[in-house]
Specification:
Elements lengths: L1 H17 L3 H18 L4 H8 L9 H12 L6 H17 L2 H4 L2 E8 L7 H6 L3 E6 H18 L7 H9 L3 H6 L13 H8 L9 H9 L7 H15 L1 H8 L4 H11 L2
Antiparallel strand pairs: 1-2
Helix pairs in contact: 1-2, 2-4, 2-5, 3-4, 5-8, 5-13, 8-15, 13-14
């Protein structure tokens, strides 16, 4: 399957670089996220795969894909799509591979061109962003996912019990998440490639697409449980790295992580 996956990755990169529609870009990124899960437990296989694929204007496809993925993550919609991409980012971060630290991606917005009435003025004053290392950006995105979850918890006396329920991961799910992987470690097969290919047709709602998604173990993940479990394990195994990465996060992002680790 190795050569087929290399050809697939090359085609996906070319299509991603030419895609103009946001929903199509999200679907393409979903497939890359699925490839991350397929590479577990050797996530470096995914990284090396994309490092061997060219991407116009970038050192290699891994740099390009992670730059686009981290920019697009907040725009990805759909429960299944969010689960696949969020857990894949967690898998990448938990790998602590040095290749991640070599990449800088778009960080926080420091000046917006919003409100400018003409295209010519917008070109003179485009949006400006900070730049941050990839691991820090991934942590920020995972923190944002936590914030969204915490905002759904009522701010009353039941808050503690709600979070206790979120943290009450049953034994099967705990074993399932033990390696911060959402998929089996077997080699990718045609059924997995079929799931990825069907990502292009998610909006069609046909029975085959729905069946493929339902059969995917990632669809069974409880994302709040997963994120709580991930941050607890990452703090234990990579405490120094976590302490370093949180320094430049926003106050809200740091607070979200602390809310998990202090329980």
């Amino acid at each position: 399957m190795a050569q087929h996956i290399l050809d697939l990755a090359s085609a996906l990169v070319r299509r991603l670089q030419s895609a103009q529609i946001s929903s199509l870009r999200s679907s393409l990124l979903l497939i890359f996220a699925r490839l991350v899960h397929m590479s577990v437990p050797n996530v470096e296989q995914f990284i090396n795969l994309l490092r061997n694929v060219p991407a116009e204007g970038y050192e290699n496809a891994f740099v390009y894909v992670m730059s686009e993925w981290t920019k697009q993550q907040g725009e990805i919609q759909g429960s299944y799509q969010i689960k696949v991409t969020t857990t894949a980012l967690a898998v990448l971060l938990s790998s602590s591979l040095p290749e991640l630290e070599k990449i800088n991606v778009q960080g926080y917005l420091i000046q917006s061109a919003a409100g400018i009435s003409t295209r010519s003025k917008a070109k003179l004053a485009p949006d400006r962003w900070t730049v941050m290392p990839l691991p820090q950006k991934i942590l920020a995105l995972l923190s944002d996912a936590l914030i969204e979850i915490q905002e759904q918890v009522p701010g009353d006396d039941n808050e503690d019990s709600d979070w206790e329920e979120i943290e009450a991961v049953d034994s099967e799910k705990d074993e399932f998440l033990h390696s911060t992987s959402a998929t089996p470690s077997s080699r990718p097969g045609y059924d997995q490639l079929e799931v990825m290919a069907r990502a292009f047709d998610q909006d069609d709602g046909d029975e085959d697409s729905i069946s493929s998604i339902t059969a995917d173990p990632i669809n069974e993940i409880n994302l709040p449980n997963y994120l709580v479990d991930f941050f607890m394990k990452f703090s234990r195994s990579n405490g120094d790295l976590l302490h370093h990465l949180v320094q430049n996060l926003t106050h809200a992002q740091r607070s979200a992580i602390q809310a998990v680790l202090s329980r």
